[in-house]
Design brief:
globular; alpha/beta; 5-stranded parallel sheet; 3-stranded antiparallel sheet; 14 strands; 23 helices
Length: 638
């Protein structure tokens, strides 16, 4: 914790304590004899509260994680509320009519200090003191004009291509087994126009991604006989309950499918999702030791693995909130030492540093085809776009394009007419843009690829409101990130979009695609039927008299969940229609759902009984057991 922050907190506490004791003593002398005992007790209590606060503060300073566990969140929060009540009573009693003015002044001071910088909650691994990233130059896909502006755009785009090419050349020494030499770098200096060069650069980067998929295919079928099955995993948000259910489900699938000689981790190419679900998925992915997987030999191994992600991360967050973040509102400037960092520190301790690896540390396993690629997608507060953290080239996923009556170009129309099939390959043609839906983090900050921690990206992806702070990026103007669940709490939208963008390669080189959805609550019945049970709406019935007040809020909450759920299912239907042109015995594209059957709290802490309850989800005769059987049959089918 910064020394200035600790000094301010200590001095503030001492000042209030001394002022309270002094004022109490003065009023004690002036008070009526029958009231002196009460005033004395009040002054002594105020001093004791502040003394206790500083003792606990010192404990947390000595040990950011372990020491914090000595004080439960309930104690910390109760102490904070006690100080607020005591401060209110002190000001009200001693300053009387000035109380309101003083309270307004304190609140205004806190707001003013907090707004003094646009980079209040910073991230370790990013430079906030150097040159800020200019968002006007972040549009890597914008239309290149024939002018001075296009030179700067093309320079950045060329840099992106060169960086990707160098990285891929290091990861993929051979294009294919038996062929000598690195991946050939395309010569783009001879293209006639800036617009054509932009298009060629983007196609070249997409070609590099296709080579990644080629390498994965060759790793699974080195003899080139047959085509591999491809699986994509999505994980819902939901704090520790989603983290443990995701980690347990992935470990369970690896063990059960491995018994049938299915290399589950190698078949999975992409994992995406929100909040706690991606904590469990990131831990599973980062700890993969190699193509053989984790080597779970028993159910006990699976449970022990999953329990790692369910340990108490709430207490350190509460301690940092109570002892640093809230008093820190009076400290100007930004800091990375907030409750978000406390959450990362807790994961470092509990998960044995598994999430301290960088994205570069994951890249080799991804290149060799046995480690799935993670995509984390926190949302920008200011405009609702997503920022994508991944080792993949995902620029095609950050924009939507198509025919636009007022912007269609002759080149685009002619390119469309020349196509033999109306498949998504035309996405890289000269079509106008509908919207830009996101940005790639490592396009914005390429120098951080080998140093930015996976755990930091997971924390940003799981920035649940108020539990974790809204972190700032070093951009101009400032941009802030929140939980990926604001945009899509299920991860299906991004996964479906990736499948759509890679349709041609997937259709030609795989024998089937399965989207594995891991959900922390049971939603399937509600999705397929509008009929509700009495227990689903009894609270609303009781509050019917207030429907004019709470109706809009209830509707907003329902829309938050339903919009993503139904939109995602609509996207899956589109994929079904694209891939499954006819009703074959075994559809090429399919999906399967694994839902946690236990009703657990949304928190970063689960009790032992909660954990045990979550792990009963694959009981005999359960829907999850049936889904596992069908998934095994799908993998084994021809």
């Amino acid at each position: 914790v910064p020394q200035t922050h600790a000094a301010v907190v200590v001095l503030l506490g001492l000042w209030v304590g001394v002022a309270g004791a002094y004022a109490g003593a003065v009023r004690f002398e002036d008070a009526a004899p029958e009231h002196r005992l009460v005033h004395g007790l009040a002054a002594a209590s105020l001093g004791c509260f502040f003394l206790a606060y500083h003792v606990l503060l010192m404990v947390c300073l000595i040990s950011p994680v372990g020491g914090a566990l000595l004080v439960s969140p309930a104690v910390a929060l109760c102490l904070l509320l006690t100080l607020v009540v005591a401060g209110h009573g002190f000001l009200k009693f001693h300053f009387g009519g000035w109380y309101t003015a003083i309270a307004v002044l304190v609140v205004a001071l806190a707001i003013g200090v907090a707004g003094f910088t646009g980079y209040r909650h910073q991230l370790n691994g990013l430079d906030y003191g150097g040159k800020l990233f200019d968002l006007e130059l972040a549009d890597f896909q914008m239309e290149a004009a024939e002018g001075g502006e296009s030179k700067e755009l093309l320079s950045k785009l060329q840099f992106s291509y060169d960086r990707l090419h160098n990285r891929y050349t290091a990861l993929y020494p051979l294009v294919e087994p038996g062929q000598k030499g690195p991946i050939e770098r395309k010569n783009l200096s001879t293209v006639p126009t800036a617009k054509t060069e932009q298009q060629e650069l983007r196609l070249a980067m997409k070609d590099l991604e296709d080579k990644r998929l080629d390498r994965w295919k060759m790793a699974l079928v080195p003899d080139k006989k047959g085509k591999p099955k491809l699986a994509i995993v999505t994980a819902t948000g939901g704090g520790s309950r989603s983290a443990i259910w995701t980690a347990y489900t992935l470990a369970k699938l690896e063990r059960e499918l491995g018994a049938a000689n299915i290399k589950f981790p190698s078949n999975v190419r992409l994992i995406t999702g929100a909040s706690g679900g991606m904590l469990g998925a990131a831990y599973y992915t980062a700890t993969l030791p190699g193509p053989q997987g984790h080597g779970f030999k028993s159910e006990a191994d699976v449970e022990a693995f999953a329990r790692k992600v369910s340990q108490d991360a709430l207490t350190p967050v509460c301690q940092r909130l109570v002892f640093f973040d809230l008093p820190g509102v009076f400290v100007p400037g930004g800091t990375a030492h907030d409750r978000g960092e406390a959450l990362e520190n807790a994961w470092t301790e509990y998960l044995d540093g598994a999430l301290d690896t960088s994205f570069a540390g994951l890249a080799k396993g991804e290149a060799e085809g046995w480690r799935p690629s993670l995509v984390l997608s926190p949302m920008l507060v200011e405009d609702g776009r997503r920022v994508l953290f991944s080792n993949l080239y995902l620029s095609p996923l950050t924009e939507t394009t198509g025919s636009f009556l007022t912007a269609d170009t002759a080149a685009g129309v002619q390119a469309a007419k020349s196509k033999q099939t109306p498949r998504p390959k035309g996405r890289f043609l000269d079509w106008p843009r509908y919207s830009v839906t996101g940005m790639e983090f490592f396009q914005m900050f390429p120098d951080t690829w080998s140093s930015f921690k996976l755990g930091t990206a997971v924390r940003l992806n799981a920035s649940f409101p108020y539990v974790s702070p809204i972190a700032a990026l070093p951009t101009n103007p400032p941009r802030h990130l929140v939980d990926a669940g604001y945009y899509d709490n299920y991860g299906v939208n991004l996964a479906a979009w990736w499948i759509y963008q890679n349709y041609d390669w997937l259709a030609d080189n795989t024998s089937g695609i399965a989207l594995i959805q891991i959900r922390d609550v049971t939603t399937e019945r509600k999705r397929v039927s509008p009929v509700t049970r009495p227990e689903d709406h009894k609270v609303w019935d009781l509050e019917r008299g207030l429907e004019g007040i709470i109706g809009p809020l209830t509707g907003a909450g329902s829309a938050f969940q339903a919009t993503a759920s139904f939109r995602n299912d609509e996207q899956l239907q589109v994929l079904h229609d694209w891939f499954n042109d006819a009703p074959p015995a075994r559809p090429f594209f399919t999906t399967v759902v694994f839902e946690c059957q236990a009703s657990l709290a949304l928190s970063w802490y689960l009790s032992d009984s909660d954990i045990a309850e979550a792990m009963k989800g694959f009981g005999q005769g359960s829907a999850n057991e049936f889904a596992l059987t069908k998934l095994r049959e799908w993998f084994k089918s021809e």
